[in-house]
Design a protein that fits this description.
Shape: globular
Number of helices: 22
Number of strands: 17
Bound molecules: nicotinamide-adenine-dinucleotide
Helix content: 40-55%
Largest sheet: 9 strands, mixed
Length: 666
């Protein structure tokens, strides 16, 4: 078959001739200008670093262009090198490749950068304001070329978006090893990220952005649904007519209104950026957009009275919304926030009282003043939340560092003993009910990109889970029921944005049995192409994050990161097709270590072996750690696993008597 232009361009990598300059497309949502952090000397270094991707003959032309980008945007993106083809997940057979595994990874990269999926696609930012897949377009081009030419006996090594190169390995080794933002701990502050990123030597990979595993807002919907559902249960009675108020219609936060509808509540989500709000509205992820609080308040009252699920959005600042709700004495049942507070000083949180444009200008030109405005806004934000919480609202931190940054801003968010007034969703819901039992955000992507293959996988997953649920112990029966309900409804809820992907919270047994059944269906030709298995880093074992994933670890070890590091090392030699380890995913640089994997399954015996060996470790190492931390659900789960798995022998904690300890210290 003759090669397509798409294939040609990938195989060319960085062309010898200068490609046409690309106009700056104003219709696209662009990353905010980054702050001017480099010294004069460092700027020379940044330029020199950028030019090392190109032959010397092009330097005279590229140097002033890159210098202008650095000045204008605070980063060198190399816009000229954006490819001329449209980026989206094509079926696996359309990639030029010697390795099917590498072709699948190309498809995943293409999906991350799809304009319908990525937040700031031209700056290679996938979600969360600064969650990058690559630092610049030269890296993208080189990586695609390496993937297109590599074999199953090579491994591509990725340093924060930069491809170090292909190294000989073997067919059971990962095809790609990704590290993002790995820095010496003393250089892990937000400004260090600004500096290293501007120099072109490090990047913030978020969780699924820099690890090629982002599947659009669906990736977070299931987790958000079970969180909202369980939060509503805490308030007692039916979810119908309960009011849930939150903020953010961005990459992941955009899942909230959809989750609210599925959980059966009335939701109001504030979003300051009209482009983000309109995108979610057009995609059918939020039902109504409102710009006027005077009109929104009666609409909220009407919706609560009707007690039917509906998702309303307020296009404006969430602090204005909270204050108005408190002033009007509206009964809010559930409250949360998903602004990007993991990135408070560079566009993650917009302070009340300033327009979007004014904030963007201030964060680049007057960073000190901007920081003060954010902190003042957070103090007002918390004050309004506190007024409603005093009247019975259940407020929870949704893992965006809201409580952490509010406390740093001096907001009234701490109890007398120095702990937060409000729980994180992991402490109350996700940790004890899900992670401790091994339930986490398992996902898969059909490499044929055919909706009928996805429908077939849904069908298989329902069958497998129903069989397992028939014999599930009482401790996990409810979770199994919710998950079966979710997967039955998934097709109807039209969750796909970008590639044909599905998320499903499942435990080790569920993940393994579902994956083996997929593999068998591929072998028999019932599913027409390979499948990529993976997960969010936000899982049982993948992430050490003291205020989020590991916030329900109470033995003092939540500030250690052994689990996340061990997890990735173990996945790497048990059959993952690619692994990743990152600094900062979800809550910000320096605050967390997180990792994940991707696994291509193709119906072979090798795939079945990888599934059994790797998924077992990937879930159970975290359960073992949670059990050692004395979490009762995890203790139950790991003892159950040991009883049925020869070769598994985990150190179990002995419980000490509280009075005995107190007396000993007197
Ligand atoms: N724990 C989880 O499972 C989980 C899930 C989703 C998101 N998160 C966290 O939530 C945050 C949001 O993630 P995202 O991918 O949606 O990020 P995002 O940057 O794409 O979206 C955040 C949105 O909030 C809006 N916003 C900021 N300040 C605002 C304000 N004052 N009023 C109204 N809107 C405002 C922004 O315009 C933006 O669209 C991140 O910190 C992420 O790590 C956690």
């Amino acid at each position: 078959m003759p090669r397509t232009l798409f294939q040609d361009e990938i195989l060319t990598g960085i062309p010898a001739q200068l490609p046409e300059a690309k106009p700056y497309d104003k219709a696209i949502n662009h990353a905010p200008k980054r702050k001017d952090i480099l010294t004069k000397e460092e700027k020379l270094l940044a330029l020199k670093n950028a030019l090392r991707y190109f032959p010397e003959a092009l330097h005279a032309q590229l140097a002033p262009e890159f210098a202008a980008e650095l000045k204008e945007y605070g980063r060198i993106y190399m816009y000229r090198y954006r490819p001329s083809y449209k980026i989206y997940a094509r079926p696996i057979d359309e990639y030029p490749a010697k390795s099917r595994q590498a072709a699948a990874i190309m498809a995943m990269i293409q999906n991350n950068l799809d304009e319908r999926v990525a937040q700031h696609p031209h700056e290679l930012i996938i979600y969360g304001g600064n969650g990058a897949i690559f630092q610049n377009w030269a890296q993208y081009r080189l990586v695609m070329q390496y993937l297109a030419t590599m074999t199953d006996e090579q491994t591509l090594v990725m340093y924060s978006g930069h491809p170090l190169g292909l190294f000989p390995s073997h067919k059971d080794a990962p095809r790609v090893i990704v590290t993002n933002g790995m820095v010496i701990p003393n250089y892990s502050k937000p400004d260090d990220w600004e500096r290293f990123n501007a120099l072109g030597v490090s990047q913030y990979g978020q969780m699924t952005a820099g690890s090629y595993m982002y599947i659009g807002p669906q990736g977070i919907v299931h987790g958000t649904t079970i969180t909202v559902m369980n939060a509503a249960r805490k308030q007692g009675g039916s979810p119908a007519g309960k009011l849930f108020v939150t903020a953010g219609l961005g990459g992941m936060s955009g899942a909230q209104p959809k989750a609210g509808n599925i959980a059966g509540v009335v939701s109001v989500t504030a979003e300051i950026n009209p482009k983000a709000a309109e995108k979610r509205y057009e995609q059918g992820w939020v039902d109504e957009l409102h710009t006027d609080l005077d009109a929104l308040i009666p609409r909220i009252k009407e919706a609560v009275k009707a007690a039917k699920p509906v998702s309303l959005a307020y296009v404006g600042n969430v602090v204005d919304l909270w204050e108005r709700l408190a002033d009007e004495n509206i009964k809010v049942d559930l409250g949360s926030d998903q602004t990007s507070l993991h990135n408070p000083w560079a566009g993650g949180y917009y302070p009340v009282g300033y327009s979007l444009e004014e904030s963007k200008r201030m964060m680049a030109d007057e960073p000190g003043k901007f920081k003060e405005a954010v902190q003042a806004s957070l103090r007002r934000h918390v004050a309004a939340v506190n007024r409603l919480a005093a009247k019975g609202m259940y407020f929870f931190d949704y893992g965006n560092a809201f409580l952490l940054e509010s406390s740093r801003a001096g907001a009234d968010v701490l109890k007398a003993d120095g702990t937060f007034r409000y729980p994180s969703y992991v402490q109350d819901i996700m940790g004890p009910l899900y992670f401790d039992y091994g339930f986490g955000p398992f996902r898969w992507v059909c490499m044929s990109e055919k909706p009928e293959d996805l429908a077939k996988t849904d069908e298989i997953a329902v069958k497998v889970l129903s069989e397992i649920a028939a014999n599930s112990p009482e401790e996990i029966a409810g979770q199994m029921r919710d998950n079966i309900h979710w997967i039955r409804e998934a097709g109807r809820n039209k969750l796909v944005v970008g590639s044909q992907a599905r998320i499903l919270y499942a435990d080790c047994e569920g993940r393994t049995q579902i994956a083996l059944a997929f593999n068998e269906a591929i072998r028999k030709g019932e599913i027409s192409a390979p499948i990529v298995l993976g997960r969010d880093h936000h899982d049982v074992s993948g992430t050490d994050s003291p205020f989020r994933e590991t916030s329900n670890i109470y033995d003092g070890s939540r500030f250690t990161a052994d689990m996340a590091v061990q997890n990735v090392i173990g996945d790497g030699f048990r059959g993952a097709t690619w692994v990743s380890i990152h600094n900062g995913g979800g809550v910000g640089w320096g605050e967390v270590i997180n990792g994940g994997f991707g696994m291509v399954i193709d119906g072979s015996e090798d795939s079945a072996r990888h599934i059994r060996e790797m998924l077992f470790w990937d879930v159970n190492n975290g359960i073992a750690r949670r059990s050692w931390a004395r979490n009762s659900g995890a203790r139950f789960a790991i003892e159950r696993e040991m009883a049925r798995t020869p070769g598994l022998k985990v150190t179990l904690p002995n419980e000490a008597d509280e009075t005995l300890i107190k007396n000993a210290l007197q």
